[in-house]
Prior knowledge:
two-stranded antiparallel ribbon, mainly alpha
Amino acid sequence: MRASREIEAGGSRSRDSRQAELVPENASALVALRLTPEEKEEALQRARLKRDALDEQLSSMSIELTDTDRLYAGRKCPLQLELEAVRAKREELLLELETRQHHVPEMPDPPGPKSLAWVDGSCFGALSNLAVVANLSCMALAPMYPQWRARFQLADHAFLAWYCFELSVKFIYHRRNLFFGKISVVWWNWFDLGIVLSGVLDQWLVPLVLGAVTGSSGGLPISANALRTLRLLRLFRILRFLKLARAFLQGDASWLQSPAFEVFMSVVIALNAVVMSLELDYEWPNWVYVENTFLTLYVLELAIKMKVGGCAFWTDHDNMMWNYLDFIIVSAGVLDLWLMPAAQLFEREVLNMGDDAGAMPGGVDLSAFPKLMRIFRIFRILRLVRLVKVIKPLYRLLLCVMEAMQAMQWVLVLTFIMLYGGAIFWTTLVGRGLIYENSEVPEEVQVNFGHVSTSLFSLFRLMNGDTDEVHQLFSSEVGKLLFVGFMVLSNWAILAILTSVVSDNMISTSRMVSEEEARKNRAEEYEKRVDRLQALFREIDSDGSGAISHSEWRGLF
């Protein structure tokens, strides 16, 4: 009963509320009925004016919103472009700062004619370096093509004339500052002067004097020792490569550390691998030039790494193995392709030993050394490991394999113990004929299981599925049981353990490597975001106060 009463009371209250809501509407309707036509028209006019005002305000707000969006989009694009420009300028400043920190001190302002300012320009320096490279190439090619001896001599005279011209214009431009100043600067110039003077003496003055003496006296009143001493001047021709070392040490090689150069070196390594296979299959006398080209690129890359890294090149924990591997491979190539021919050139040109390249003073025979260096050429294939490093999935797989090899050591110890014990057991039963009647051992069984060492190797082959060694044992029931027992123990148990250990370590290592790469990527992304925000706030903070004021914030829009 109480519930029914509450329901009725609630219904009555809802009806009363609806009636109360209708009262104002009825009242306004009654008021509207009492208005005169003029008053109604005036009310409608006021309503139209309010509607027009609201429409105008809505249109104005829509236009303002569109302008704001357009302003934001127009402001965002220049900010992005300016941010990229600021970032590029920052990289340039960092590069310039690093260059200035490691830059060789400059000479004083040149007192010579300003029209010779091109002497210190990069174009003239590059042309001089190309001349040195061409000169060294001609020196290396001259022994290979004796029929072109006259041409190579003419080229040597042309290069010497160029060196004289280079040193002369530098002296005219810098004058006394070229040879007098800071030792760290001028010693290179003294070195260039020594090379030029030795070349002039060796290639021009000595032949001129010898020709004059020979023509006047009809003989040669100069001893052989004096001639050999004069030939030592040719040693300075070989030292011209130090001019390239100077250009490298004083130059900026940071661009060679870019990702594009890494991709280029990866392509070079891949091409070198293809060339190594072609060298073995196709005879071609010009393969040596291709090898020297590749070796030049590898030496350049290694020198850049050593210059930029410094002592860290030898102590960097993450890249230590790769750095030492690069150094060993490149050093072997330099010794094979450059130093050995240079030593032969020194013997022929300076010591005048002719073709007696096998004997050195003191009775040391080096005839077997070139064969040893050819064996070392096989290690060039290790450069493919560097190619694996560039490809991230292969590099991750290589790390997993290396970690798995460390985990395999105890499995390998267990395998050796099992094989060694099995070798003793099989040598005793099979090799000594205990499983045969009258102890008559077949000859093939005696060869394979007669000694512990041969039994060890035969069981290793049997472990890997080679059953040719045990066919003679199948004629005996005991031999069959030995075969079954060893296969179950070695091929099923040991190899299963090895597979499980390798798989588990590769999975865990792959997970660790992926997490480490993800952490590095997050750190790089965080640094990029911080750089973008700092550049943006530096632009907004026009007064450099370290805080954005209200006026600066309003000025942003």
